[in-house]
Amino acid sequence: MSLKRRKIKKIILFSAMCVCVAGGLFAAYRAWFENDRKGAAFASDGCETVLDETVPGSGVPDAHQLASGIAKQLVSGETVEIDSEQLESIFGLQQEDCLSFSVYLARKDTSAFEIAVFEFASEEQKQSILKAIQQRKAQKLAGFRELNEAEYSLVQQALIAEKNGFVLFAVCGAPQKAQDIFFEMLKGS
């Protein structure tokens, strides 16, 4: 092979490699941007909770701000936030069963990680939410009993807390820390 052909081949390979790297960077940026814009996923990067994220003019965080603040501190991998259609299939709740909600689940089916915050306006809504959470916990216990002993233990230690019209359901390695963050974010509201 001539020297000229080898140089051309190297240039073509180098160009192809640059295109692949640029494409990968673009795809990663786009995924990050979409997730950041939607608040849908978090990487395990040690983000700090911002305690003053509030609904403009109200001084009170909403369910999404509470759940995302907790998930950002306790995430053990990638998470995804569910939508109202998934709320019914996962918790058996309709969107009108609560004022607002935000649920972050582990992206992997083999992880039990879950942070859920529901806002309620009445005792009836609160009872519906608590019943749905108990059913969800029982479902997760049954699912992880044989699948993964460590994750099963996390579900057994799951925490349910209530404050100022919000209910927290935390399945994670530090449920007490989740509750502390939840209470801190609602302090003064």
Describe this entry's structure for a reader:
The structure is a single chain. The chain has six helices and five strands. It is of the alpha+beta class and 189 residues long. A five-stranded antiparallel β-sheet has the order 1-2-3-5-4, sandwiched between helices. α2 runs antiparallel to α6 (175-185) and α4 packs antiparallel against α5 (149-156). It is elongated, with a radius of gyration of 22 Å.
Could you list some keywords that capture this structure?
189 residues, alpha+beta, 5-stranded antiparallel β-sheet, 14% strand, elongated
Overview in brief:
The protein has helices at residues 3-38, 63-74, 84-91, 123-147, 149-156, 175-185; strands at 79-81, 100-106, 114-119, 159-163, 166-171.
How would the blueprint of this fold be written?
Elements: H1 3-38, H2 63-74, E1 79-81, H3 84-91, E2 100-106, E3 114-119, H4 123-147, H5 149-156, E4 159-163, E5 166-171, H6 175-185
Antiparallel strand pairs: 1-2, 2-3, 3-5, 4-5
Helix pairs in contact: 2-6, 4-5
